[in-house]
Structures are given as structure tokens and as C-alpha cells.
Amino acid sequence: MLLRSIFALAGAVAIWSTAAAAETIKIGVTPGPHAQILEAVKPIAAKSGLELQLIEFSDYVVPNAALDAGDIQANSFQNQPYLDNQKADRGYKIEQVGLTVNFPIGVYSRKHKSWADLPEGAKVSIPNDPTNGGRALLLLRDKGAIKLKSDVGFKPTVIDITDNPRKLKFVEVDAAQAPRALDDVDAAVINTNYATQAGLDPVKDPILREDPKGPYVNLIAVRAADKDKPWVKILVDSYHTPEIKEFVQTKFKGAVLPSW
């Protein structure tokens, strides 16, 4: 009886020690693939003593503000140009600690079966934030729809258009609202996570699709003061596993591309 009691006490102490050692962080995500992938990461991170609590945000602006304010400890929703723009504009001390996935952006239409079918003067919606709006214009430039100034970098705006042979009319909308604009425009440039959330197929449905290149790989971000903390390595290592790569490839079938 005494021996059994000692073993029972030892087991209880071991369980308590494991629970005490576990750390919980809040990580901000946008609905759709980012949230789905992090759900798959949760049990892997838990094996290393890191509990992930996902906090969903419906737009691209709040997650960095929440991270900078300390309301969350990490986020996974953005690419490097977007993060750089937010840091420059708002002074956030936020750093990239690991790459995640790439979402080739696409042009969708409910009125036309191909880009060639768009009439002269067609209305095309693009995201209204500098990074995704610029990305949309670069896509249209690369596909020969417009020409841009030579020195625009990754954040061109409509005033940087130097040639618009089909006299396209650009309508700037919030990225999260882009799917809702489809009924009001001839075509809409929509980020993959919002396209999938709206029931669109990012592989089959776009009438134009971005080549999977450039700096638009998404990332995990944390506050600069936290980047060397042990939980950051656990989070990134848990994401960068063969299991998550297989999950992304199987779940999204080419709409989302692993980038590690």
C-alpha cells in the first residue's frame, strides 16, 4: 500500500509539473486557411508544452495593433511587404520569425468567363490597403492589362498607372469585402483566404492568377522583445513539420503553397 501511494504521489507530481510547465500564447489569425493551418499546428505544439489559443480577426489592420499592444503574443496572416508598411506607418516593433505559406492572389468575376471578355471601361475592384492594392496592380501589369511607372516597387497605386488601354475603372474596397463586390463590378482582385471563405475555388475560379513568386510569402510575427523566447522556436518548429506541409497540400490542393 505504501509503495502504491508513493507511485501515485509521484505520478500526481509529474502531471502537475507538466501542467505547470505548459505555456499558453494567443496567436492572431484571419478566418480560413490561416486559422485552419494553426488548428492543425496546435496538437503538435502541445506536445512540446505550448498551448495555442487562436484569436480570429476579420480584417488585416487589427492583428498587428493587437500584437503591438500585447493583447496577443503572435500573429499569422500577412506577408513581409505588408508588415514593413505597417511598421513604417505605425512604428510597430514587430518582427518576422518564420515563413508559412503563399496564397497566389487572383482576379474573379461573376459576369465574365475570361479576362478577355471584360469590356472597355470595365470596373475592377482592388484592395484598398497599400500592400494588397499594389500587389493587385502588379498582377495586372504582369498579365499585360496595364503599365506602371518603372520605380513603383511593391506598392504602386492607381496614380502610378501609365497606360490603361482598356480604360479600366478601379474601385478600391476593403480586402475582406472584396468577395461582396463581385456583384457590383466586372471583376475583383481577391486574396485567397477571403476567396475560400466566400466559397470560391482559388485554383479553378480566377480569370487571372498571380504567379507563385516574389515577396508575398506569409509569415509568423511576434514582438521584437519576444523573438528569442523559447516558445517562439516551439511555435515555428511546430509549423515547419512534414505533418503540416502534408496538411496544407492535401487540404488546399494548390490554392495554398507551403513555403518552408
TrEMBL record:
<feature type="signal peptide">
    <location>
        <begin position="1"/>
        <end position="21"/>
    </location>
</feature>
<keyword id="KW-0564">Palmitate</keyword>
<dbReference type="Pfam" id="PF03180">
    <property type="entry name" value="Lipoprotein_9"/>
</dbReference>
<protein>
    <submittedName>
        <fullName>MetQ/NlpA family lipoprotein</fullName>
    </submittedName>
</protein>
<keyword id="KW-0449">Lipoprotein</keyword>
<dbReference type="GO" id="GO:0016020">
    <property type="term" value="C:membrane"/>
</dbReference>
<keyword id="KW-0472">Membrane</keyword>
<comment type="similarity">
    <text>Belongs to the NlpA lipoprotein family.</text>
</comment>
<dbReference type="InterPro" id="IPR004872">
    <property type="entry name" value="Lipoprotein_NlpA"/>
</dbReference>
<keyword id="KW-0732">Signal</keyword>
